[in-house]
Design brief:
This protein is 38% helix and 18% strand. With 324 residues, the protein is α/β, with parallel strands linked by helices. The strands form two sheets. The protein has a six-stranded parallel beta sheet with strand order 3-2-1-4-5-6, sandwiched between helices. The chain has a six-stranded parallel beta sheet with strand order 9-8-7-10-11-12, sandwiched between helices.
Length: 324
């Protein structure tokens, strides 16, 4: 049995982008053991894939803030022991950062990663036994897949499969999820556009559900909901619960944020709104049901987004017509 350790620790969208790698591995090596090192706050995402055998949680983000605590160094020691408790055939770092390369170097197995010219942080390449030149102009999902294919020596020609599933919640009215929150202010879509989109969705019989995490995000979501006719904020939820919410949606509209990538990975009709970043390399990437609108410096408007979402929902069979 081939044993493989994947190292992709963060962030939410990057972890989602790595899920198809697991599907690819099992398509080529059906009996493979696939373990995954991931930041503790994102550990629920690899669990959504039945092909992941074991998840090893790391807490680099938290450790950096608590380096002078003895408990932190005990945790680091325990993490290293857990990492070294298994002998792997391959240890593949699909992140290409110094922190992920350090983790890769701690594990037992053939250590593989991007060459210096291809890695996000070139110094990471010094920690690998084998380095691979993967084109930087590929979408992030495909870069992950090509790297693992090169490391495990199989052609990167498999169909794209995220391989995850979630449980759809029981709700009365059909609903759409609006992912309004993002970590960068320049990625936001203006409130006026969200309100116009909600009105168009309401007219077609859809409720709107707005998830939010931080207090700032929740304050904005609540402000938007107060000015929408049929909308509500989602209750505080973990990633598994949010995946369930997304899985049950008729459609999703989101800004450039990890949850939008998760929606696309769940094969739901998804429109991703871009304006501050380039969707060619990091946009939603999940086939015909996921579409990126907008480009660097040019945001789409609510009419354009709604028209695309209705087309996607009709093609997916999730569109409804309800008189209001």
């Amino acid at each position: 049995m081939t044993a493989i350790l994947l190292v992709k620790t963060s962030s939410l969208g990057d972890v989602v982008h790595n899920l198809p790698v697991v599907s690819d591995i099992h398509a080529r090596f059906p009996r493979a053991r696939v373990d995954w090192v991931v930041e503790e706050s994102f550990a629920e995402l690899p669990r959504l894939h039945p092909g992941v055998t074991h998840i090893i949680k790391v807490a680099i983000r938290r450790w950096r803030r608590q380096l002078f605590r003895s408990a932190t160094w005990r945790e680091i020691s325990a993490f290293r022991q857990q990492l070294r408790s298994c002998q792997y055939d391959y240890v593949v770092d699909t992140q290409g950062l110094l922190k992920s390369a350090w983790i890769t170097w701690q594990a037992h197995g053939l250590r593989c990663g991007y060459c210096a010219e291809a890695a996000r942080e070139p110094i990471a390449a010094r920690f690998y036994d084998r380095e691979f030149a993967i084109p930087r102009n590929l979408h992030a999902v495909e870069r992950n897949r090509w790297l693992v294919a090169a490391a495990l020596e199989y052609p990167p020609d498999l169909p794209l499969r995220y391989g995850i599933a979630a449980q759809s919640p029981s709700r009365g009215n059909p609903y759409c999820v609006l992912l309004t929150a993002t970590s960068r202010a320049d990625k936001n879509w203006p409130d006026v556009q969200w309100l116009a989109l909600a009105q168009l969705l309401n007219l077609q019989g859809y409720d709107c559900v707005l998830p939010a995490g931080s207090p700032v995000e929740r304050a904005r979501a609540e402000r938007l909901v107060q000015n929408m006719r049929r909308a509500q904020c989602a209750p505080p939820s973990n990633l598994s619960q949010l995946a369930d919410l997304l899985a049950g949606a008729a459609g999703i509209v989101g800004v450039d944020t990890g949850l939008t990538h998760l929606a696309a990975a769940l094969d739901r009709p998804t429109v991703a709104v871009f304006g501050a970043t380039d969707p060619m390399l990091t946009g939603v990437h999940a086939g015909a049901r996921a579409v990126n609108l907008g480009r660097l410096g040019q945001l789409p408007d609510a009419q354009e987004v709604a028209a695309m979402l209705f087309d996607l929902m009709e093609a997916a069979g999730s569109a409804v017509q309800v008189e209001t």
